[in-house]
Amino acid sequence: MPLKKLPLSFYRRDDVVQIARELIGMILVTRWDGMTTSGRIVETEAYAGVTDKASHSYGGRRTGRTEIMYADGGYSYVYLCYGIHHLFNVVTHRRNTPHAILLRSLEPLAGIPEMLVRTGKKKLDHTLTRGPGNMAKALGIVKDQTGILLNGKQMFLADDGFRYKKSEIIASPRIGVDYAGEDALLPYRFYVKGNPYVSGKV
Asked: Which keywords has UniProt assigned to this entry (predicted)?
């Protein structure tokens, strides 16, 4: 089945946790400077806006960095973590409800030679796109690409008809959000059981 871009209506639904689960198995595509890279999403994390202590928008926080989270669903939100790693998120829900989904890992499909150049790796191994920082670097994603509508030509998410079995998709607490108290225990992370590209605890 050819790639079919996800419609904006996919992102503009209320349930960020459901969307995070449904993104497992979809394909992220980037096209920069004539180079196309893509991979199948194998790990996501949902962040449920103003009520979620792990979210950048918890309590209604609005800054120059997080303002894009308050847009209609379907935009990219890329931020720099620890001054080193760019992390790519998908904004969901509708205007003024700042839900977002962090894409943590994917299984590379197209443009692997270009991914190796971007990451400085000599050969393909599972670390190429394992974890959100490695994933973004391999696909050439940086924070200047915040605010891109994800149904265009440069960066989009797509469906090729592939589906993992329900039993293959595992829910767990998110990674690295211990500061969020009880919200750190929410089962808002989804990953493909046994996939070697998945980061963190499996």
From this structure: DNA damage, DNA repair, Hydrolase
Print burial letters for 148-159: b (CB count within 10 Å at least 16), e (below 16).
bbbbeeebbbbb
Q: Return d(Cα 94, Cα 71) in angstroms, integer.
A: 7
Using one digit for the tens of pLDDT, what is the confidence trace for 8-67?
999 999 999 999 999 999 999 999 999 999 999 999 999 999 999 999 999 999 999 999
Task: Give the separation between CA 107 and CA 191, rounded to whole angstroms.
Answer: 12
Place of tokens 């050439």: 140
Contact 87, 102 (CB under 8 A): yes
Q: Which helix (H) or strand (E) holds 114?
A: helix 112-119
- State whether residue 183 is helix, strand or coil: helix
Task: Answer whether 0.85 is exceeded by the pTM.
Answer: yes
CATH class, 4-190 region: alpha beta
Cα distance between residue 197 and residue 108, in whole Å: 9
Residue 199 to residue 137: CA distance in whole angstroms? 15
